[in-house]
Amino acid sequence: MRRPAVRLVCPTWASPGQPLHVEAGPDASRFVVTVPPGVSPGDSFLVRLAGLSPADAAHSARVVPPSPAAFTARCPVGAGAGDRITVHPPGRPPCDVVVPAGVEAGGEFVVLPPPADRPPGRVARARALCCPTGFAGVIWLVVALNYAALVGVAPQRWQPLTYAAGHALLALQVASYFATMLTPPGAVPESWCGDMPLPPRARFVRRHGEAVLAFDHFCFWLGVPIGLRNRKPFVLYLCYSALLVLFALCLVAYELRRISGGLTWRPSTTTRADLAGGASLGVLLGSLKLVFLSLDEQTQEWAVWCFCLAVVDLIGVGLLVPFAAFHLQLVLYNRTSLGGDEAYRYDIGWAANWRQVFGARRSLWLLPIIGDGPTVDGLHWPENPRFVVWHDHEAVSNSPARLSRTREEELQLATVGSTKKGA
């Protein structure tokens, strides 16, 4: 049985794709419908309401006018119909809404703010901050395994200087992580909304719902966009994570060397000959088994820990060290991960490039503290003079007048050449 259809009139404040609250039936039941594409304010259209009987459809249906909490929002530059953006209702916390169909960048539309949700509890907020993604959970798991093994399971105590260095790196890594998560990436000011284009190097991030100044990339490991304000703590987080896992690998290698140095087992003449002549995997594993069995029970347990940590830390070093070096190179050359067309354009020297991200105060360069912030505002960027000269030269060389003049010169040379051959 088909659902009964009711006729509605599109109100003046609605637009195609915008949800409407409708009251229908004798008991004024509430329904939510969407304005069809191509319907203008004042036009009538038919909708079918689920759960409405034909008898109830005989009663007139009406569109519920927006509540006093409704407000007008503007679609930011870079966004379009169907994108989820973050709006700031007056007197209410920010919320995410979907841009209705037919609304372009700079256009306005009426927003009915959703009902206030129950605020998440402390456990939910802590989980969203400490472990926003599964990748972040893997990072903390690797840190926890190294800390538990090297501090709790290790049979001998380390030197005080080793303890101090390890805990200092761990504290700097954790502080850099929370600074990256809690520092806003840098929003475009309201004066740039509307029909004005986005500032240079700014992009609209659909996963974030807002435009970000000096947008570098969206970090899927942490679930946050990296922009002008939180790029420094993010780079420090990468560097300290790489140094921490490299430090742990050095400690594990030291322990493996210490364990192998105290062995009493020596390979026999036959085993040495097999190993020297290219032993099979079975012979090699058998030799390692004999080495393992020659250890006492406590040392065997610690050797297993060290072997597992060595594998994990080697993978971590292979991933984090190149990644940290890559982002340091981007900072020194004043580039971004997604700015493929800005090579050398904003490169004004290593020192000036570094201060644009890490600030002017050298005492705060290695600390995840914003301080006085970057030396640029994210709206205006100094450019490389050589790039400007080269860009102007290319623009003049590729101008239509220059190209047409060059074409005429080529035709004249070709005409002169053919005349000489004919003579």
Please give a structural write-up.
It comes from Prymnesium parvum. Belongs to the DHHC palmitoyltransferase family. It catalyses: L-cysteinyl-[protein] + hexadecanoyl-CoA = S-hexadecanoyl-L-cysteinyl-[protein] + CoA. It is found in: Membrane. It is a multi-pass membrane protein. The radius of gyration is 33 Å and the shape is elongated. Helix 3 packs across helix 8 and helix 5 runs antiparallel to helix 8. A 3-stranded antiparallel β-sheet has the order 3-2-5, with no helix packed on it. Strands 1-4 form a two-stranded antiparallel ribbon. It has a two-stranded antiparallel ribbon with strand order 6-9. Residues 395-399 have low confidence and may be disordered. 45% of the residues lie in helices and 12% in strands. It has 423 residues and is an alpha+beta fold. Strand 2 and strand 3 (29-34) form a beta hairpin.
